[in-house]
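Hi R.,

Here's the chain you asked about this morning:
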Amino acid sequence: MTESMRIVLASRPAGPPIPENFRTETVDTPALQPGHVLVRTLFLSLDPYMRGLMSTAESYAPPLEIGQVMAGATVVDVLESRDPLLEAGDIVLAFTGWQTHAVVPAQNVRKLEPTTLPLSTALGVLGMPGFAAYAGLLEIGKPSPGETVAVAAATGPVGSAVGQIAKIKGARSIGIAGGARKVAYLREIGFDAALDHRAPDFADQLAAAVPDGIDVYFENVGGAVAQAVFPLLNKYARVPICGMIADYNATGSPPGPDRLPAFYHRILIKSVTVRGFLQDEFAPTLYPDFLREMGEWVAEGRVRYLEDVVTGLDAAPEAFIGLLEGRNFGKLVVKVAE
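And here is the predicted structure, written out as tokens:
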């Protein structure tokens, strides 16, 4: 047995998560059984979807139970193996969550091939966020050369990849982010226009930036950003919905008038396609292509990425709280061990 530090769900948030919703424990890992591996966490991914798992509200995944380890994708190294296909020292992608060590079935991990890129990229540009961008944009958004693609949360791991893939496909890329520093970064990595959604005249700036309208809107945020985008959608526009982070901490209906009729009206008169998706539904057919193409684009510098790395598992709760407030800059990763 190996001692493991873990962070569990102590209570369900009422609104934004607070430190008291998390509890740190130290436990022994279970005995290693045939077909299992003992792993040590090197990097932990922090992602917005984890907020939904803390709640009992209806979602695409069952909620965490009180006292259960916080879920999350991880890059881990194998310390001990009782499976013939893995051995000590292998680096694998797993879903062991917020803990330093775990025993898991070997069939539930994927061995990572050697690369010159940091291991943490398996949780970002070459992992689930990168694949969500790739699959959602190319399978649902289907941008054509010359079209305009707008994306919210554009400096995040999904949004930044969306904008850069759109450019590779010959589209015009409009990035929406919060704050001058993030806007400057979007311009640096080649977005055709970058806008600060916190600006008081954001809606007017967006309209001026898309004189020919918007053909694809990749939704990561919802809220006021979506309200500014929807009047600008062109006929036959496509809207892949990947996330709605503006609403994740909501405890009731948003204030103001009911905008649903206007939303439906826009969909009708412009023949807009709105499609929610989970990235794993495309994995069986697209993941090998994604690994090959995205790997090439990153190696060639055509897709750039940014990581926001915090150190120590005990830093995860505060970092996650900041993620939901937009404090991170790039893909948020916890470095748990060397």
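One quick note: The longest strand covers residues 36-45.

Cheers,
M.
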